[in-house]
Structure formats: C-alpha cells, structure tokens
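Troubleshooting log. The previous structure file for this entry was overwritten by mistake, so regenerating from the original sequence record. Sequence copied from the archived sheet and checked twice against the printout by T.R.
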Amino acid sequence: MIKAGIIGSTGYAGAELVRLLLQHPEAEIVWYGSKSYVDQKYADVYRNMFELVDEKCMNDNMDELSERADVIFTATPQGLCASLINERILERSKVIDLSADFRLKRVGVYEEWYHRTHEAPEYLPEAVYGLCEINRESIAAARIIANPGCYTTTSILTLYPLVKEGLIDPDTIIIDAKSGTSGAGRGTKLPNLYCEVNESIKPYGVATHRHTPEIEEQLSYAAGMDYMSGDSIKVNFTPHLVPMNRGILATCYASLRDGADAGAVGEAYSKYYKEEYFIRLLGEGSFPETRWVEGSNFVDIGYTVDTRTGRVIAAGALDNLVKGAAGQAVQNMNISFGLPENTGLKLVPVFP
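Regenerated output below.
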C-alpha cells in the first residue's frame, strides 16, 4: 500500500486528490495538510467527505511528512514546494508538485513569468515534467515530478503529434483556450465571484499568462530545438474564463507545411495516441466538448483541415481538476510505483 501525503489538501486540486486517492486500491492517505485549517476536521471543510474522512487537517511540515509517506503531493501556490524541499525529504519520499516550481528548466524564465526568486534551482535539472503520455519513461525513475498545468496539458497533447512529426509551422501556432472557474483555485478573488463571472466570458492574461512558457518549452523539445540554449517556439496563447465549474477546451490553429494534409494529421494522432488509455481520438471533423470529459481523466481530441487557408484546427478538452491536475498527479504516482496507469482512475465522465 502506497502511503500518500497531501500538502494543500483543502484547495480544489488537493480536494480532488483526496477524492481520487480514497478510491485508489493501492494508496492510503496519511496526511491531510492544510495550513489554513490546521486541527479542523477535514470533513468539516468538505462536507462531501462526511463519514468518509475522520482525520483532522495538519500543517505543511514536509520533513515530518516524509517520515510517514512514500509520496508527497504538493497542491500549493507557486514557491511553497521549492521553499520546503530538501535532500532529506527526497531520500525518503517521491514528490509530485502540482505548482509550477519545477516545470520550467530555465530558472530565468520561471522568475520572469512568476515574478519570484526560485528557492531551489539546484533541483531543476533532475525534475521530470509529468506529462504522462510523453515522458512516462523518465517519470518512472524521478524523485521530483512536476505535474503540468491544466491549460498546458490540453494544449501540448493537442499539438504534440503535429509538432513532433513536422506537419505544422510551429511559429504559426495560436491557442485559444477556455476554462471553468475552478482553475483559479478556491481562494476568494473578486473577479471570480458569481456576479462577476455569471452570464459572461472574458479573456485574461492576454500575452502574459504563466502557462505560456510551459507550452513553449515542451513543444520546443518536440520540435527538436535546443531549448536550454535559448532556441524556442513562440506561441500566441489566450485563455478565457467561462461560467462553469470544471473543464478546459483548447482550440489550436497552425499552418500546415507543404505536403501535409488531413490524412497525415490523422496518422500522426494515431501514431502517438492510438494505444493511450486516457486520450480519446474523435477523428477528423468531430470536436470535443467539456461536458463529455467532466469528472474523468480523459482528454478528447478532434481536428479538421481548412484547405482554403492551409491551416489545421485541432481542439482538446479535459477536466481541469482531474487530467489537468489531481488525476494526472495520480497517474504520475501510478507510473512512479510501477502500477498500471489507470489504477484508481477508471472514472466514467459525469453527465449531466
């Protein structure tokens, strides 16, 4: 039985980790960390856990937690994991970080986009980007797994085969993405109040969203670029907030290279994803909807080729709290401990 501890268990991603791990046949939660609710019963914070979780919330002492846990999930704001991690912890436990602290290999890029000093740059070289379908071999041996962001998971998985196979001009990539409000976390923020978001949709973080360099870095690796030397794809990424609880939809546009057509696009998706349990290929002319992935760890992908403009239009959808956060973290745990990736994650999408 894998002993798991969660730092930040009362945020939305942390609570989703609790939900998933309680159902996991090979995992046991030994630490419900929450700095805001120390000594309060977890089930009093989340009443859906009434008579399911009897434990009280604990602090964020990762040193003590590492003595009890085989794996530590840090579902916390940027900076906390980097400020707490040390060699002692890593000798005892694997760390799966759901923040951005270890996602970007170039410390200067992290500090530019997140406007903070990185407190553990010495661990960046060994941290593995936890996009399971692409990096599973490296994930298996990693001590630190950087769980990807929700927008990035959707965008990268939608574009990866096209970039990897050289079917598109990567300098022409435009990503138009939509997210439910849970993507902003559980903290009280004026722009996310009901009256501020209901019956409205808005772009935000235009040309400045912090997931942009994450998308660029991973797609640069796919394109074979020397990212660490400064060679990088540049994308236009615009996120939008929509008045729903869960879901990410990313519609991606790019110019096809000479000779590429719809058949080649379909073959590329099949080559990389045909055997992937959590990626459902809808095929040409069929497009995903967030309602058909809600509550699950699936990513649905569809595409079409606009022969008039010579561009491919590809769209991906996922649940931002599951495959975009906690579900992918559990998938990373499964890989890390040699379990089938879908263990505890055979979640049928919820509808309506």
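The two ends are 34 Å apart (CA to CA). Archived copy saved in two places this time.
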